[in-house]
Structures
1.
Amino acid sequence: MFNIANPDAQIKKSAFYGSYLIVNACIAILWLVSESLALIFFIIYSAWHFGEVEWAHIFSKRSWLIKVYTTVWGLFLFGSMFLLNAEETIMVVNRTSALDVSIPEITSGYYYSITVSWIFISSLPVLLKWTDKKNFLIQIVNVACLSLIFHVFDLAVSFAVFFFYFHSLPSLAFELKAIDNKVVQPINYKELIQEVLILSAAPVVGAVIFIFLFEKNFIEIGLPLLVVIGSAISFPHTVIYTRVVNKA
């Protein structure tokens, strides 16, 4: 994916991994400097990325206004997920930052107003003629299903269903299509899987070992550590994915 985003650049694996680790370290340092700022930054660029994955294959043009829209759409996604699982969300925020957030009283009115607002935001591309009407129905169904999932299930299940089904599968489909359309391809998919394990699974295994060695429970140290690791490994992915989208 890096080679597709930078077709004229030649980079050795050692330089790539070194750069990757430097970016990870910068994100980790930001968490040390200001947990609240790092958390807000994490939410904003995640919203940008989730919105981009949702809409990149639909929009035929790229502009700053499109980028703003996809970020706003991602923030509505988070707003729906977090507000409908407010108690668990605040527990995570309290464990990972110094932000003082109170629990709002969630009523059925919240659910309907959030869902209607999100559906309206999802309708804007059709209303503004950024995309064909044929894309409208599937977006509304997606938003309605996600809102219902967030309303019925807890935060962990809600995020897992969204991330693996609504986000990862479209993202993977786009990435494989981008690879197939370019001359830059992995030698074989075994090598690709090995790289995924190194860049994703290894840090998680390291976190589990860290928790075990220091004899801390998951909620006390594991949850904040996984949030930091997640933000560190997702940022370079977000940047490279955006560059690939711009090249597509």
2.
Amino acid sequence: MASGKLKYKIFISGTIEALSGLHIGGNDAGMGLAGSDITVLRNAGRTPPEPFIPGSSLKGKLRSLLEKSRGEFGPPTIKSRGVAGPTNDPTSVAGMLFGTSYLAQGESGNPLRLIVYDCPLNTESAEKLLEMKGLERPFTEVKREAAIDRVTAVAASREIERVVEGAVFDMNLVVNIYDDDDDGKILKALASTLLMLNDDYLGGHGSRGYGRVKVAVAESGLTVKTAASYEDGSVAISLAEVLPESAKAFAPLAK
């Protein structure tokens, strides 16, 4: 459990490439614009509005994968609909990375260490996708499916908007490391979970082939600052220079 004194801020930047159509749901009130029943989330601040991966979606998926791989679950809750909820064990890796509740643990709570930012569409990728022909809306396709009612056997069609295969998103993570932390254990767990995501899926409808992704992190995307760096204005330096063994954990994610 953390002593409360920050030791390092570790910055992890990379990309997430869609290897199949990717659906992370938006507001279906505007479905008429997309010609689909279920639309994707878009950044309205861009012209044209670009799809993005919310930090909350990526973080939730990483937590789920990490807890499943290590069997680190908490008791069932109303929010988890009666199944195992997030762990409240501050000594677990999931509890260290994602934090635990002070309310649930009394004075034994744990601050979260992992910050996950929204992943915008990569600029170069956006330019290529805008040139793609045959799309019903910029950056996305509409997947038409038939849903079969198990009781009546009646087929009902539905249309799902997906970000097209080949789209690339910029990923940025920050990990706070405190004085008493085992940085190697924490970063190895994060790296292995990002690698595991490559063999799983992101977003909705993954069991039907949606959301296959490739996460890539180059060594140049691994940097670190100490708490003192913010006092003297020092720039971030390579993680490999400060924590070489931790940096090696991300080698399987290199492009």
3.
Amino acid sequence: MDKPLIDILIVDDLKDNQVLMEIILENDEYNILIANNGFEAVSLSLENDIAVILMDVQMPSMDGYEAAKLIKKSEKSKFIPIIYITANAIDNSQIFKGYDTGAVDYIFKPFDAEILKSKVRVFVEIFKKNKEIQLKNNQLERLNNLLLEKNQTIEEKKKKLENALSLIEIKTQELTSKNKDFLDSIMYAKRIQQSFFQNESTLRNYLTDFFIFFRAKDILSGDFYWVANSKNKEGQNKTFVAVADCTGHGVPGALLSIVGYNILAQKLQENQDFSPGELLESLNREIIHLFNQTAQSRIKDGMDISIISLDFDNHQLVHAGANQVSYLVRNNELIEFKPDKQSIGYDEKFLKEMYMLDKIDIDEYTDNYHFQSIHKIFQNKSISFQRGDKFYLFTDGFADQFGGSKGKKMKYKGFRELILNISKLNSQDSRIFLRNYVEEWKNGLEQVDDILVFGIYL
């Protein structure tokens, strides 16, 4: 018996684009459906069992976002994965708008045919796996009904037991399959996240001597680092280094880390004269707008972050921090660069206060919060650096880690002692020391947060 074809829906108002994607996706397993506009896309998604939708964003009458919203409203079609295909440049807010409408990915024109086929193949395989699971569930349901109809004889009780064992095995296989699918998706997301971070070979174009110790709690991380160069109108070169700790870890933290990374890169490209404090202010403004940080929404999205700029020609270091401290070690003495006591984006203390003030005009307080938060000035702290100075940017992963002989947190007092110890080592030995130390410190306990330390040897 021939296997049924798998429906793939292409939504595009241009015939040439339709034909091109049909040719690229030609496969004996696929049945290609064509929708010339958003209305046809909604209709076809309700009439057919579709594995994946390739949705053009820009279409007359109803664009891709509007069509996707209607498709996601129906119980029959709300779980169909949608890949947006667009030729227009879009910013982060449009990307997140797409994800809010149920998109699973974006492809930008002109696209690589092999990438398109690969992404479609992934969702086709997921579709096939889901169908297999559904079929097995139906089989299980029929077996259960059969057991209920049997007489309660010894022989039939034995048969029930055998069937129960069989069901356990089937469910175990299903769980194993689902776990594999989930893990495959997470590993794919990890590759995407890692592609944003510069490798050490690239970083040596910016920094001569440094080390990075980076250990995620889960496969994905909410911590990230960012390094970039700028050249202002006067021809002055600066190297920027940032280390950030986003809200949460795992998938939510990873998504926010990519957003923060992109905003920093975009803002520095727009203004090469930015100081670290101005970069933080701009990042704060973008995060608040992007996630609509109002008292009504109470979305807990934000990050703690420290940024420095290095002027190697004039031996000047400028630091700004949003609720994240940094250290400079000079002649075996530790100098602490204290941050502004406000995170980027979400302000939990303020929102809790707003929640308690339900008898007051909430719009007035919300507007005031937006004004104060968006225009928060982050202070720059400058210092002339010397040969032999060592600067450390880091997240709170080490300080918050439980361990030692008493199973308590290291805290910042213990972490400062650790930094002073590694400052006597070269950069590569420092990283090795931290790697061994964290395992010894945990003493068998679970890692509680992402850990990131970026050491710069001046």
4.
Amino acid sequence: MSYRIVIPGLVLALKESMKKLIIILIATLSISSFAEDFKFRPAGLESYIDQPSYEDQIITIGGFEIRRGDLLANSRISEESIDCLGSEQKSIFDDKVFQTSLNAALIATVLHTTLQAPEDKKKHALVGSLIGLGTTKICQKFFSGDDNRLVCALTGAGAALLAGIAKEVYDTGGRGNVDAMDAVYTFVPGALISFKF
């Protein structure tokens, strides 16, 4: 008698499982067929054939359109004198020795400030870093380009120095302790962060 109850239950469970399996199979096949349309395909040769060459590109100078090749041919510049890579002028920021020295100074400043400086000096270092970084980033926003990195770094360092001195002048009015080292702790991290970023 128990076989008569178990077998129909198994058949019913098997039918339900088959229905679910068929639904999953249909969903998988339909998703994979749609996914084929969105699959990444590398650019073929046809996409490069339609692109004009460097010499065939049209450029506009003062309202006049001219082919790059014609401009080069009529400019009396020999192809040997054109450096395709360009002569990159290296700045102090690209110098490995400068970057290594800056990193070492920044690490030493952070270690000294966190391990040995009093709480007041830590606050000055944090505020100086934020002022230096913020001023540098604002300067870079207005004066974009790699050639202005030195100007922006000096601006950030100057802002940190000015903030340190201004705080000490403010403290001379009896509002706090006057300590020249507070200005130093404000300036040095701010200057290092300005030159780093």
